Amino acid sequence: MPERDSVSWTSMIVGYNQMGRFGNAIQMFVDMISDGVTVTQFTITNILSACAAVKALDVGRKVHSFVVKLAVGSYVSVANCLLNMYAKSGDPRTAKIVFDRIRLKNTSSWNAMIYLHMQCGRADHALVQFKQMTERDVVSWNSMIAGYNQHGLDMEALTIFSSMLKDSFLKPDKFTLSSVLSACANLEKLEIGRQIHALYYNS
């Protein structure tokens, strides 16, 4: 291409992300900056997703500087991507700062904090955030169930799963069931595990 604009560069970044080639997406962003091409909100959300996927904290922090420079931090989509990047890249302090500054928090905002607390071994904090949510999606429930399961709190995982079935219109997905069946195995509740497997995998 004789001339590549912001749309062209961002399209390449999105394409690499979709193929799981996050390192290439990050390099494309670096080259984009070197060429002096204008960064857009859409560029930022996509490169932050790439940084989160490979825990590229240093690059993510540089992207954060563009967020400040372009004054797009008030956009929930950008703020959530920043929060997610810091949460998954091992900077819980900054993640919490970003979360606290989001005025109109949505489900993704809360989910990122639940994930962060579980990764830091603070299941009690995750539960507090979970209870504060006015709306939950499957990711919300999965984050709690998987988090409990990963930390050996298998009975708590089954309790949350039971609440999901009673209190939510959402249907468990393969990630939910994987964590629940793992909890059943750890607790040697094999009959319950077989019933769950038969109900959801054979239906």
From TrEMBL:
Domain of life of the native organism: Eukaryota
Record bears the keyword Repeat: yes
Pfam families: PPR (PF01535), PPR_2 (PF13041)
Per-repeat ranges for PPR: 5-39, 137-171
Keywords: Repeat
GO molecular function list: RNA binding
Annotated GO biological process: RNA modification
The keyword Flavoprotein is assigned to this record: no
Gene3D superfamilies: Tetratricopeptide repeat domain
PANTHER family in the record: DYW DOMAIN-CONTAINING PROTEIN, PENTATRICOPEPTIDE REPEAT-CONTAINING PROTEIN
NCBIfam families, per database record: PPR
Protein name stated in the entry: Pentatricopeptide repeat-containing protein
Species: Prunus yedoensis var. nudiflora
